[in-house]
Amino acid sequence: MTDSRETILAVRKLKVSFSTPDGTVEAVKGIDLDVKAGETLAVVGESGSGKSQTMMGIMGLLAGNGTVTGSAKYRGQELVGLPLKALNNVRGEKITMIFQEPMTSLDPLYTIGRQIAEPIVHHRGGTFKQARTRVLELLELVGIPEPKRRIDSYPHELSGGQRQRVMIAMALANDPDILIADEPTTALDVTIQAQILDLLNSLQAKFGMAVVLITHDLGIVRHFASRVAVMRRGEVVETGATTDIFERPQADYTKMLLAAEPRGRKEPPAATAPIVLEGANVAVDYATGGGLFGGSAGVFRAVDGVSIRLREGQTIGVVGESGSGKSTLGRALLRLIPSSGRYRFGATNISDFSRSAMRPLRRQLQLVFQDPYGSLSPRQTVGEIITEGLYVHEPQLSRAERDKRAIEALKEVGLDPAARNRYPHEFSGGQRQRIAIARAIILKPKVVILDEPTSALDRSVQGQVIDLLRALQKAYGLSYIFISHDLSVIKAMSDYVVVMKNGRIVEEGDTDAIFEAPRESYTQTLMSAAFTA
């Protein structure tokens, strides 16, 4: 059946390229796309397929070495080459974008209330204090708990999922005509995903807003999108109605994407395997209050009396909703943040170790961050980033030896060794996550805490990364704490599962027991949301 709705964004022969030390990289190779009023167009494909760069090119947000050519007309107005002042009148009001990595898009020096208010004040006028009511309304709409308290929080005080919801609130502030959502639920647990998508659905119905959904999560696409465009290596290989794409895919690549799912299980360690990392009665408190809109000071307990033991060769999966304390627990176990409790690394009691006392142990205790772009210096090449730890922990290595180690690490995570001469902004979100993993494993640590290490990856690459992590674990006897909201990945990766809610453990046990016969209603809700989508 022909869709008679008006085309409000017409993309023709769009090309995006980047100038690099290794030559010109063509990220998008002359694609055509149409976005119709009120529809949801999902743009899917593997990491590096050009999904995000297509939209960044349309919005005039490419990095300095990026070039866009072709045409992108919004209601007849050409956006490619449009002067910045005129473009700013469109983006942020008529066309808005939710970015994949919220921590890099939120200013760490300003409260979230101030940042949500900024586009309101810019496009509608008034003062920041006058925008307070609208900011509180938006925070409540996107599911931020206690909005009157959280309005004065800084980005680092929120979980990854909460930061993403702040970005959604900011994008919705001026009731846009087109909302470009770049992996809008990547950092969110399955129950909150449904709430956010329902919210976008209701807003779309109310305002007639079109949504361009960039995602690798085909489960979301099936339930949320009306049309799908499949991209591979900078080209559109297939487009069609969502039902047709899922039930009658034509391209072999589309069929491969639909069949991809994390598979297999790892062998659990022996019950007698030594304990390599232990935290007992771990508690983490954050001070709250103050800020632009005032508010009384207080204390928020993010982790409340958690105990965990990690054995050599074991993977403990930590699951729970956004804000449950998963990431905070991981940082506390590595002694990266102030906390109370008793800690041991192997036979060593590290409970009272200062920062300087912990420094020699850092090579053995590594962390892969949730937002890789936020932890990768934009001023350093990939080679410099992943070898940085070698300068500290193996200073005797020559430049050639460090370069050799960098090549080996990049190969291990499935990246071209030539990538070491490029910069982080030249890579997709999934590729940046693999760079972050390479940086962690180059020192051959004993313990790696992986905070949502596959959340930015498409399903096919998730499987590759899981296989990689298993192989590294087997080869080097690594122990993992694997933090994720993706229960299918947790099931494929973990020997033991810990379920957290409101800073506490509500259930824990062997992976099979947790997935096949969860005892607690909260765990049952998580499982239902994950496996009935």
UniProtKB/TrEMBL annotation:
Record bears the keyword Protein biosynthesis: no
Q: Which domain of life is it from?
A: Bacteria
Primary localization class, coarse = membrane
Membrane topology label: Peripheral membrane protein
The protein's UniProt keywords, in alphabetical order, are: ATP-binding, Nucleotide-binding, Transport
What is an example of a GO molecular function annotated in this UniProt entry?
ATP binding
Task: Kindly indicate whether the keyword Membrane belongs to this entry.
Answer: no
Q: Where in the cell is it found?
A: Cell inner membrane
Identify the residues that the record assigns to the ABC transporter domain, covering every copy: 11-258, 277-527
* A Pfam family annotated for this UniProt entry: oligo_HPY
Similarity annotation:
Belongs to the ABC transporter superfamily.
Protein's UniProt name? ABC transporter ATP-binding protein
Q: Which organism is it from?
A: Rhizobium herbae
